[in-house]
Amino acid sequence: MRNFSVAAAQMGPIQKNDSRETVISRMIELMDQAQKEGADFIVYPELALTTFFPRYYMEDQNDVDFWFETDMPSKKTNPLFEHAKSLGMAMSFGYAELTPEGRHFNTSIHVDKTGSIVGKYRKVHLPGHTEFDPKRTHQHLEKRYFEPGDLGFPVYRTLDGIFGLCICNDRRWPETYRVMGLQGVEMITLGYNTPSTNSQKSTEGPEKRMFHSSLVMQAGAYQNSTWVIGVAKAGIEDGHPLFGGSVIVNPDGEIVAQASTDGDELLVHSCDLDDTVFGKKTMFDFVRHRQIKHYTRITSQVGVELPKDL
Ligand code: CDT
């Protein structure tokens, strides 16, 4: 099944007081619509089950853990899994994961049409800060509530293709795509929650933020000849605006579908994994063209190091 239909299920705002059950019924509604439109695979955003809670400063660990899932599926999320299985629909979505060892991750999974989790990823690039910052118009406390993912960027086989996951801020880093590109990835799915304004750069409005979001996904798709499905949580969550602009990007880096609202909105597009073959075999034939001896800085240093003679 290398040619199938993907639904990017953008979700409008989820308010702080919205229950998991309410959100899951919205996800099920989107899934039903996706099925009517012929989709085989539905992709939901980052932290799809709750509001984007890292904007809230919390000190009490019980308050923090309220936002996390200890089981997947759980009693609350099982109706989504069962519904997907009954429709024969594969799905991917993000959630906050609390492991039995007490570790906290920003996680995303891919569930196949039989209800088995075939792919799991824990967000590597965590943006923001760890302490309350009074200078910011809004807080972004992912570094406080999550530890960096410990699974790397794995790819996995499903739907007769090679798939990978990443989450929100990961999309801005070329390493994310290249590490999966080097494992032959043919479709990357990712969700995001991105504020419409930059709390540290007041001149940067939603248009520029959206431009950067699409730019990085298009570049990642083209340079690795892979489909990229980028799905937003959008709209105003408890007074905090998030931009939409969910996209389906083909392996040529072209946007083939884009959301136009800040609400629940479905983009359905037929994706052929064989469209990745030309780019992988010609322009970006890694084996013939990559010169790894010149790339050592990529994994040997983190920050900028000026050469000594500069
Ligand atoms: N959720 C997430 O990773 N959002 C970031 C915003 C960073 S602003 C501190 C993003 O890159 O979209």
Description of the molecule:
The protein is an alpha/beta fold and 310 residues long. The chain has a single domain (3-285), classed as Carbon-nitrogen hydrolase (Nitrilase/N-carbamoyl-D-aminoacid amidohydrolase). The protein is built from 9 helices and 14 strands. Strands 5-4-3-2-1-14 form a 6-stranded mixed β-sheet, covered by helices on one side. Strand 1, helix 1 and strand 2 (41-43) form a beta-alpha-beta unit. The site of 4-methylsulfanyl-2-ureido-butyric acid has 10 residues, from loops.
What are the main properties of this structure?
25% strand; 6-stranded mixed β-sheet; single chain; 14 strands; alpha/beta; Nitrilase/N-carbamoyl-D-aminoacid amidohydrolase; 25% helix; 310 residues; binds 4-methylsulfanyl-2-ureido-butyric acid; globular
The strand count comes to 14
> What is the number of independent domains?
1
Order of helices and strands: EHEHHEEEHEEHEHEEEEEEHHH
Report the helical percentage: 10-25%
Span from first to last CA?
Answer: 54 Å
Identify the strand order in the major beta sheet. Answer: 5-4-3-2-1-14
Which fold name is given in CATH as the topology? Nitrilase/N-carbamoyl-D-aminoacid amidohydrolase
Q: CATH first level: which class?
A: Alpha Beta
Overall body shape: globular
Give the low-pLDDT segments: none
Biggest beta sheet attributes = 6 strands, mixed
Task: Report the sheet-strand fraction.
Answer: 25-35%
CATH architecture: 4-Layer Sandwich
Bound molecules: 4-methylsulfanyl-2-ureido-butyric acid
Q: How much is the radius of gyration in Å?
A: 19 Å
Structural class given helices, strands, pairing?
A: alpha/beta
Count of helical stretches: 9
The chain-level mean pLDDT equals 97
Query: What do we call the CATH homologous superfamily?
Result: Carbon-nitrogen hydrolase
